[in-house]
């Protein structure tokens, strides 16, 4: 049922969803939308529906028709939108996928002024997210959620995460690292360190960890990044490594390998990690073990990489 809160736990994903245009320059452009945390919210809602999971997306939009159109589409996916702020005069961010004659794609972004960046641009405690913090069981955010916020917004999000952890709620950090969204690597490293220390669960892509800390793209660089990730202080660490087995490390235990699903042909890896996160967290919030959750994540992601685009048709979801 669209946008109807389920009776189960409540998870909030926070971040930015942008408008998407795709096609040939001055040709016909197709309109869509996307963003890492929104993709995860869609997969959370789909995977968690049978357990009554309530999924919220927290972001800011404008008061324009495109923003209204986004809200309606999220609601149709079963995502609750009561934590979305509408900021008069602001607009959602936009990206354009330029497709050339050979089908190669280039991404262009207009997101510096996007409404989502201003989510916390109001007095402390004034956002619906802060006001409803006591009813939230889990908060999901990514390195991109951090990158788009100004330093003051990042500090507010850290304070909220701390508050949630203090009352036993989960804080899940996904290490999506996009260098061009950051002023420099040191700023990103500081923000990622703050949130990996605050998180109860870290979902890490090994490639992003290597890129963030400047580990060489060699087997030795990957081994360094892996050792550092597994040593993070949080109770639950999941390391995604493309087609290589996923590693799950719980507090005080040795890491466990969870195999990925072999696929005949990878079509598009967009949202592989986002879908993994959706299936993983839906399983965990329904009481499943971390290894069962990683298996569910690998299964869904293996389907997603065989489809073009971020969000697969509902009928392609695993049963
Ligand atoms: P991200 O999308 O976060 O960069 P990865 O590339 O590590 O992360 O992929 C996330 C998940 O997608 C993996 O853990 C795995 O489940 C799945 N996946 C990615 N590539 C493949 C592949 N070639 N074959 C099967 N599964 C894959």
Give a topology summary:
Layout: E1 10-14, E2 18-23, E3 29-34, H1 36-48, E4 54-58, E5 60-61, H2 65-76, E6 85-86, E7 94-99, E8 105-110, H3 128-131, E9 138-142, H4 143-148, H5 151-166, E10 170-174, H6 185-198, E11 201-205, H7 206-213, H8 219-230, E12 236-241, E13 244-250, E14 256-258, H9 272-285, H10 290-304
Parallel strand pairs: 1-4, 1-9, 2-7, 5-6, 9-10, 10-11, 11-12
Antiparallel strand pairs: 2-3, 7-8, 12-13, 13-14
Helix pairs in contact: 1-9, 5-6, 7-8, 9-10
The structure holds adenosine-5'-diphosphate (ADP).
Protein name: 2-dehydro-3-deoxygluconokinase
InterPro entries: Carboh/pur_kinase_PfkB_CS (IPR002173), PfkB_Carbo_kinase (IPR050306), PfkB_dom (IPR011611), Ribokinase-like (IPR029056)
Catalytic activity: 2-dehydro-3-deoxy-D-gluconate + ATP = 2-dehydro-3-deoxy-6-phospho-D-gluconate + ADP + H(+)
Short précis:
This protein has 319 residues and is of the alpha/beta class. It is built from 10 helices and 14 strands. The strands form 3 sheets. The chain has an 8-stranded mixed beta sheet, sandwiched between helices. It has a 4-stranded mixed beta sheet with strand order 3-2-7-8. The protein has a two-stranded parallel sheet with strand order 5-6.
């Amino acid at each position: 049922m669209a946008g109807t809160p389920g009776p189960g736990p409540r998870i909030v994903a926070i971040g930015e969803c942008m408008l998407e245009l795709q096609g040939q320059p001055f040709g016909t452009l197709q309109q869509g939308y996307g963003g890492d945390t929104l993709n995860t919210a869609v997969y959370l809602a789909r995977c968690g529906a049978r357990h009554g999971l309530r999924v919220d997306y927290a972001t800011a939009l404008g008061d324009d028709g495109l923003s209204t159109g986004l809200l309606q589409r999220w609601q149709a996916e079963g995502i609750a939108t009561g934590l979305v702020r509408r900021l008069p005069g602001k607009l959602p961010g936009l990206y354009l996928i330029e497709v050339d004659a050979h089908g190669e794609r280039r991404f262009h972004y207009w997101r510096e002024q996007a409404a989502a960046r201003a989510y916390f641009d109001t007095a402390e405690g004034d956002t619906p997210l802060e006001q409803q913090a006591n009813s939230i069981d889990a908060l999901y955010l990514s390195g991109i959620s951090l990158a788009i916020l100004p330093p003051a917004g990042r500090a507010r999000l850290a304070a909220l995460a701390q508050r949630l952890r203090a009352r036993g709620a989960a804080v899940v950090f996904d290490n999506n690292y996009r260098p061009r969204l950051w002023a420099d690597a040191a700023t990103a490293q500081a923000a990622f360190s703050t949130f990996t220390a605050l998180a109860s669960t870290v979902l890490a892509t090994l490639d992003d960890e290597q890129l963030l800390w400047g580990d060489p793209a060699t087997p030795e660089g990957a081994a360094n990044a892996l050792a550092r990730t597994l040593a993070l202080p949080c109770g639950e660490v999941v390391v995604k490594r493309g087609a290589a087995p996923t590693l799950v490390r719980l507090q005080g235990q040795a890491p466990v390998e969870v195999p990925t699903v072999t696929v005949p042909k990878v079509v598009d890896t967009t949202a592989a990690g986002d879908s993994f996160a959706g299936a993983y967290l839906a399983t965990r919030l329904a009481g499943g073990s971390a290894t069962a959750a990683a298996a569910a994540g690998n299964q869904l992601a293996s389907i997603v990489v065989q489809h073009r685009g971020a969000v697969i048709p509902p009928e392609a979801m695993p049963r």
